[in-house]
Each structure stands twice: as C-alpha cells, then as structure tokens.
C-alpha cells in the first residue's frame, strides 16, 4: 500500500493518503473546468484512507444532487470531488500531492471539452523549474 503526503497552497490543510495511489483521472466537464480553471486531475481513494490536518479550514459546496466539492477556506485550493450518497469514495485533487511520481493516467472524461483539445496552442516556450525561477526572479508564484 502506498502512502503520499500533500497540502493546499497555503498549507492550512495537509494530508497523508494511503491506498493503491497508482492511477489518476482527468475530468474536463464544465464544473471541473470552472472550479479548477482547467481540468480536474484526481486520485480516487476512500475517505478512511485519508488522514487530514487542518480540517476546520475545509469548506464544502453541494455542487449537484449527488456530489460535493471541497476547497480550502483560506487559499481556495480545490481539495476534492465526493459523492454525497454515503459511499466512501473521494476524488482527491492530484495537484495537492507533494510527489506524483509513479502515477499513471486512467480515465479521461469529457475529452471533447478538454482545454488543450479545444484551443490552438502556440509553439511552447518550455522552461524547467530552475529556468522559470531564473527568468522571473524567483518564480511565478
Ligand atoms: Zn489553503
Ligand atoms: Zn468533472
């Protein structure tokens, strides 16, 4: 069983996740695009496999009749998508993880709405973390 840590942007909420943690899903539905600003990359696990710190900072929104979205009340980081039918499953945002090595893509939903497939990307200026920070005086964040 794998174990991975993660946190929201401001660090008010952190977690240790356990489970297989070897696959991620991508959703580009209208709600996922808007709440993330792009697409929602997530890892599916059970709430019982998630140890949360700073849970008093979590805010939830009932986003449909069957699911909620959660985010950090301080920095706005998207935390999860979770069915509210009483089941254990939760789609935890992949972007929160400290280390995503070893994960592979599984499902990609609403591909016809995926931003990279619906806009024309110009030739990319690709920069590593070190190159980006050198060019922008310490980074873009
Ligand atoms: Zn936060
Ligand atoms: Zn979605």
Bound ions, cofactors and other small molecules, one mention each: zinc ion
Biggest sheet statistics: 7 strands, mixed
**What name does the CATH topology carry?**
Metal Binding Protein, Guanine Nucleotide Exchange Factor, Chain A
- End-to-end Cα distance: 33 Å
> Would you state the CATH class?
Mainly Beta
The stretches of 5 or more residues where confidence is low (pLDDT under 50) are: none
Structural class label: mainly beta
Query: In order across it, which strands form the biggest sheet?
Result: 6-7-8-9-4-3-10
Number of domains: 1
What percent of residues are in strands? 35-45%
The SSE string, one letter per element, is EEEHEEEEEEEHH
Helix proportion of residues, in percent? 10-25%
Q: Count the strands? A: 10
What is the radius of gyration computed over CA atoms, rounded to a whole number of angstroms?
16 Å
Query: Treating each run of at least 4 consecutive H or I residues as one helix, how many helices?
Result: 3
What is the average per-residue confidence, as pLDDT, rounded to a whole number?
92
Global shape: globular
Domain CENP-V/GFA: 4-110
InterPro entries: CENP-V/GFA, Mss4-like_sf
Organism: Roseovarius pelagicus
Protein name: GFA family protein
């Amino acid at each position: 069983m794998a174990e991975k840590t993660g946190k929201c942007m401001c660090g008010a909420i952190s977690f240790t996740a356990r489970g297989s943690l070897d696959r991620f899903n991508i959703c580009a539905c209208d709600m996922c695009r808007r709440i993330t600003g792009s697409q929602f990359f997530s890892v599916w696990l059970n709430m019982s496999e998630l140890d949360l710190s700073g849970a008093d900072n979590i805010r939830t929104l009932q986003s449909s009749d069957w699911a909620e979205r959660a985010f950090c009340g301080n920095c706005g980081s998207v935390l999860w998508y979770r069915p509210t039918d009483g089941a254990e499953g939760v789609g935890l945002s992949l972007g929160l993880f400290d280390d995503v090595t070893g994960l592979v893509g599984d499902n990609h939903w609403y591909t016809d709405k995926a931003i990279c497939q619906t806009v024309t990307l110009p030739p990319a200026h690709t920069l590593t973390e070190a190159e980006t920070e050198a060019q922008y005086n310490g980074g873009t964040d």
